[in-house]
């Protein structure tokens, strides 16, 4: 049913699984003796985080934050809002932020600076990186896939809180969001 709204698949379910396995091996080595706090950014990161952590063979804790700059629609509002803060103590901790996509970079830059100000050492892994959309300077430490500047949904990414449950990442047909 949802597939009818997708113009094309950019990253398949199988590609996501394979890349998550590869990233998990790298992160296992990186964090083998560090007990990081793996910090998912709600809501979009949940599918990627769930897939990724299955492949990290190291001690870790998990927590979540909700930070938004979209407030509905297809473009960032430019205003970053902290909606739900982390519950875990983070001073002097290794934090691995897990994100679904880095587009303008505003939200992630704000979040990284906030956590570093609180005394954490922060690194970032993202499923998708869209460098053409970047407005502020920030780069992930690890990237699943670099994608073109298209409006994508699926595997956690949404349009008006729909399409998150697609098992792949696809380009949403323009007529769906241009009304």
UniProtKB/TrEMBL annotation:
Its cofactor is Mg(2+). GO terms for cellular component: cytosol. The keyword Magnesium applies. Residues 23-159 form the Phosphoribosyltransferase domain. It is found in: Cytoplasm. Pathway: Purine metabolism; IMP biosynthesis via salvage pathway; IMP from hypoxanthine: step 1/1; Purine metabolism; GMP biosynthesis via salvage pathway; GMP from guanine: step 1/1. Its EC number is 2.4.2.8. Keywords: Cytoplasm, Glycosyltransferase, Magnesium, Metal-binding, Nucleotide-binding, Purine salvage, Transferase. GO terms for molecular function: guanine phosphoribosyltransferase activity; hypoxanthine phosphoribosyltransferase activity; magnesium ion binding; nucleotide binding. Purine salvage pathway enzyme that catalyzes the transfer of the ribosyl-5-phosphate group from 5-phospho-alpha-D-ribose 1-diphosphate (PRPP) to the N9 position of the 6-oxopurines hypoxanthine and guanine to form the corresponding ribonucleotides IMP (inosine 5'-monophosphate) and GMP (guanosine 5'-monophosphate), with the release of PPi. This is Hypoxanthine phosphoribosyltransferase.
């Amino acid at each position: 049913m949802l597939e009818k709204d997708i113009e094309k698949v950019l990253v398949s379910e199988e590609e996501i699984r394979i890349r998550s396995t590869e990233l998990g091996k790298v992160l296992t080595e990186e964090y083998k003796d560090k007990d990081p706090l793996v910090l998912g950014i709600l809501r979009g990161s949940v599918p990627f985080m769930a897939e990724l952590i299955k492949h990290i063979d190291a001690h870790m804790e998990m927590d979540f934050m909700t930070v938004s700059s979209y407030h509905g629609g297809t473009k960032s509002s430019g205003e970053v809002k902290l909606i739900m803060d982390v519950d875990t103590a983070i001073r002097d901790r290794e934090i691995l932020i897990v994100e679904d996509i880095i587009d303008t970079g505003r939200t992630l830059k704000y979040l990284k600076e906030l956590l570093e100000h609180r005394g954490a050492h922060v690194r970032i892994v993202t499923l998708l990186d869209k460098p053409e959309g970047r407005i502020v300077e920030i780069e992930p430490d690890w990237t699943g896939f670099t994608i073109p500047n298209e409006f994508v949904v699926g595997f956690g990414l949404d349009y008006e809180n729909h399409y998150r449950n697609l098992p792949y990442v696809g380009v949403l047909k323009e007529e769906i969001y241009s009304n």
